[in-house]
Amino acid sequence: MGHDGEESLATSEGEEELANDRRTSPPRDRDDESTIRGVKEEGAGASPKEESSTISQARSNSPETEQEYRPPLPPRPSNFGLLREGSYSPGSSLQRSKNTSRPHLQSTATTALSRTDIHTQSYQDGSRETFAASAQTTPPSKAIAAFGSIKRIKGFSGSEGGDSGSVRSYAPTLETGGDVESLLGEVLGASQESPAWRLHSTQNEAPDPFDSITYEDDETTVDFYREFDEISAVAADGENEEQLLNQWKSKRKHFLILSSAGKPIYNRHGDDNLISGYIGIIQTIISFYEGAHNQLKGFTAAGARFVVMSQGPLYLVAISKLGENDPQLRVQLEALYMQILSTLTLPNLTHMFSNRPSTDLRRPLQGTEPLLSALADTFTRGSPPTLLSALECLTIRKSHRQVINDTLLQTRCETLLYGLIVASGRLVSVVRPRKHSLHPSDLQLIFNMLFEARGVKAGGGENWIPLCLPGFNKNGYLYMYVSFISAYESIGEEEHERVNESGKPDDIAILLISANKESFYDLRKMRDALVDELEANGSMAIVRSAVRRGRPTATDIVPGTVLRHFLYKSRANVQFTMPSYEPSFTTLLARRRLLSLYHALHASVHAKNAHLKVHHCISRESISLAWVTPLFELYCVAGPQASRNALAQSANKVIQWVRKEEERVFIIGGAVSLNSLDRCTIYKKLTPPAARYSEQI
Amino acid sequence: MADSAAAPPKPSSSVKLVLLGEAAVGKSSLVLRFVNNDFQENKEPTIGAAFLTQKSHLPHRTIKFEIWDTAGQERFASLAPMYYRNAQSALVVYDLTKPTSLVKAKHWVAELQRQANPGIVIALVGNKLDLTDENAAASGGASTSEGSDAEGAETPETSGDARKISTKEGRAYAEEEGLLFFETSAKTGVNVQEVFTAIANAIPETQMKGAKGPGAAGAGAGQTALGSERVNLNQRAEGAKEGCAC
Where is the FUZ/MON1/HPS1 third Longin domain (chain A) (predicted)? Predict the structure, then answer.
């Protein structure tokens, strides 16, 4: 969680490894930071170039001359030498860039982008050649590991420093040695290889392909919209089975969960009877490898990537034709597993299966399917928070947030563990015990439950929900009080709202989490006091208007920019910000296309052996840039006609904007309750892992 | 309100009510119909429990229901005591088209009789009347006290009728255990208001929590306050009072 980002980062070993991996030292980070801040004070004019210099390759001999001279695009086919040089020497070039990062030595954005031309070229000219080049420099197995979005794995595995995961802890377990080509095909040559990309590229002759209109009448568009259609049940005589199976196969993404004994637990599309044959096959394949003590991680068949994760007694399988890579799919499976833990807790789960390995988990999980499906659909649509393992906050002034934090603290009742105010899926404020942060994956589960699945909101009223937050403690339940407040109704109709509001996506939710299952009325009283106070001091109106305003568009943030969209992740805060999807990405398909692009960018810059700091890629649909430093990750996308320079300048403007607005777009610190419960009390108060199912099973 | 003679505001009191029953019998839908006069197809399952309030206007008093709509899934069963502990009334719901749901309902009734407040008013409700053939016919509203209901007693096994539990069977069990009994449809709204009105009428006034300022309700459980005005507890609410969705 962002508000705890700094302390958790500072203590986690991930930090070190991350730094090592980037061959930079922590002091340099500080240096970097201070330089940027210094420049910011000096004046906006100098800073974009300055900042880009800190990441530039500094290969050019004379930055000063290049400053005025914009070099033409290098001739495409002759650049492999550069690529090799680029992947050999990021460390040293960074060192050099550090030396040159003085305000007066301005290297232009062009310099920063020079090496990325190669990637441009690799996109344009075919991935195989490019891959061949990089394979010469690294052993194949490393090359695969390289394409993992490594940090996210750790992010979900219980460490507090969500995004500072260790690369090494993960890499050796990757055993997909045979799949070099397909893996890279997905990442590098997406435009040529992946069916998903083909789907998304059907209009690539159009001048402005991201525009929604372009796709409206497209056949494949219709197809993607059908992705979320329900498959009806098999008729009693099995007559429609064939047709349903075809329907099932046409889905671009599947999630299957089964027990290691082969019992189906969950699948996203169609009923269990329909695909029982497939469940049997996948179980056979997995257990065959398991039997040989050679765990199956994934394989590719018929244009679909299969990723297998085995978690205790469960097998989770993701099948994707959308061009995501293994680590990205693995993160999604991890989230589904966390949802199961959130329903059952780990001791319950293991207890059931150790008593009876053939347990049918569907019954204890009854009612969880909508949550799993909501998660799965979020992943299929594409989800920036999941991709980045970060959280989005509602942008409000720092002083306003401070008032809300203070109000939360003042009204805080004894039994409160965490208190959160969330508006349309974005965090507004949080109060937490001193020693505890909220794990992003836990928040993802909560947000999914409240804002994606309709169950809680549709009921109206207030809710009292027992749930396990696996990132916090996977052994017991916490209890969450939830109350929604409409962003659109005026003050004073509170009673009315409580009853009549049946859930618009823009609602404001008050979440109060306690370890005491009897504390509903306490928390309810606190909620009433909190809302009264927030209404009285005007904070509620501020939040309401911020919600109504929505996200600013990219052009609001950087006037006249070529950028269509960007994602900015602050690594220290484990939070991200992005502009509105409007006006360019209004349709489901356009958004999925955008997210696929982000996935590809993310995969390339997190490739372990690539040591990329900047990744620039040009396709027929867009030009895009990924820029990673120890402080932030920036991914931005512009239309195909935009120039590299314009893109780079816009990227710098975005960085400036975030620096300026940092305390508005991110929650830094959050409210820490003074008399925090210490860990012991919390654990004592947690419901013991009840042997609830023992009598039934 | 109907009794225009009563110039001072009617005494109001709050009643804690808990809904119990197997998953997917329509507990939340009943509440949604009662509170918002609304219905949602394919409603997602409740997670944990939802707390709602709704006022019900009787001739001589106003009752504020504090409703605990619990999730029917097995794994939430261990939390149920917390919800029915201080409840003055309970709605045990089953699905007319699903025999196992009546079995589960009987378990709940037994648990309530064993562990809940001794004076708790329990209503047995068979929901999804719209899926049966006589959904229009049985709209008369029936409590245990009124016996004659000819057309509901026999279950016509015609095509399209999904009914699996006859009115007779439900009523017989309700009479045996001394429960209020209704067959309802949350989808069409048949009998939904009647259930809550009947519960309001069946609760002795001495058991009600005193009238308090809004917002403070629910804070002091077990506190009793006698209404200033005597009302006939057995008076049946007439149709005119119902359907006010304030």
Answer: 563-662
Min Cα–Cα distance to chain A from B168, Å:
31
Complex-level ipTM: 0.77
Hey, is the C-beta of A695 within 8 angstroms of any chain B C-beta?
A: no
Q: State how far residue B148 is from chain A, nearest Cα, in angstroms.
A: 36
Of the partner residues A459, A460, A528, the one whose CB lies closest to the CB of residue B215 = A528
For residues A326 and A330, what is the distance between their CA atoms, to the nearest angstrom? Answer: 6
For the four alpha carbons of A388, A393, A399 and A403, in that order, the dihedral sign comes to negative
Overall size of chain B counted in residues: 246
CB-based contact B33:B105 (threshold 8 Å) = no
| pTM for the predicted model, two decimal places | 0.71
Q: Does B45 touch chain A (CB under 8 A)?
A: yes
In b/e form, how buried is each residue of A647-683, taking b as 16+ CB within 10 angstroms? bbbbbbbbbbbbbeeeebbbbbbbbbbeebbeeeebe
The answer to whether A495 faces chain B, any CB pair under 8 Å, is yes
A291 membership: H or E segment, kind and range:
helix A272-291
Who among A455, A466, A693 is closest to B45 (CB)?
A455
DSSP, collapsed to helix, strand or coil, labels residue B140 as coil
Name the residue of chain A whose CA is nearest to B46's CA.
Answer: A455
Q: Which residues of A touch B79 (CB under 8 A)?
A: 466, 517
Q: How far is CA A625 from CA A306, A563, A665, B2, in A?
A: 28, 10, 22, 71
What residue type is assigned to position A208 of the chain? D
Bridge-based pairing of strands B121-127 and B89-95 is parallel
> Do A517 and B54 count as a contact with CB atoms less than 8 A apart?
no
With CA atoms as reference, the chain B residue closest to A502 would be: B36
- CB pair distance less than 8 Å for B47 and A525: no
Pick from B80, B15, B44: nearest CA to A456: B44
3-state secondary structure of B11: coil
